[in-house]
Amino acid sequence: NWALIRNEAMAYANRDATYDDAALQKLRDGSDPDHYANTDWLDEHFGKTAFAQEHNISATGGNDKYDFYFSGNLLSQEGILRWGDDSQHRYTINAKINVNLTKWLSFGYSTRWYRGNYDAPSFVSNYASNEMYHNIARYWPIIPTHDPNGYPVVESFIDGMQNGGRFKTTEDKLDQQFAFRIHPLEGLNIN
Fold first, then answer.
1. Is the distance from CB of 74 to CB of 55 less than 8 angstroms?
2. Which of 139, 147, 149, 163 is packed most tightly, with the most Cβ within 10 A?
3. Run of H or E residues at 150
4. Of residues 62, 67, 44, the one with CA closest to residue 132
């Protein structure tokens, strides 16, 4: 277990063991969880199975004068945070058409629209999340998640995720492209 490895590392460094036999026994039997917890910090914060669904539709067609393509996509994804719900939703539409206006001139138009919605506890946005991810990957397992009164300890980030407000973003993007293609000679194309 972690405490034994810690003691072994201290021995290699010619230092006293961090945990004596009494402390090791408390870790083994869980008799003092307020001082000798056995917390898997990554599992404590991330671990629920996230449900995701994605739906697509597309259509193509055309003839010798024109061709077209259309597609749509919807993604709905729950997050993996245990103590604060997070989710994202994405919607996209793509469309493209090419038209032969004459033997020597064609026109093309394509567009892509994207909308992304993200909703999470404010605590996992930007700077705060960097600190959270950094710390939970380095916390010692003996730190409990809750104090003896049942309140989350500061190190757990639980209170911040449950009561720290929401971070909601909506991002929209629209890309469009127009193109004329001139075919003055066989094998010569000018875009």
1. yes
2. 139
3. none
4. 44
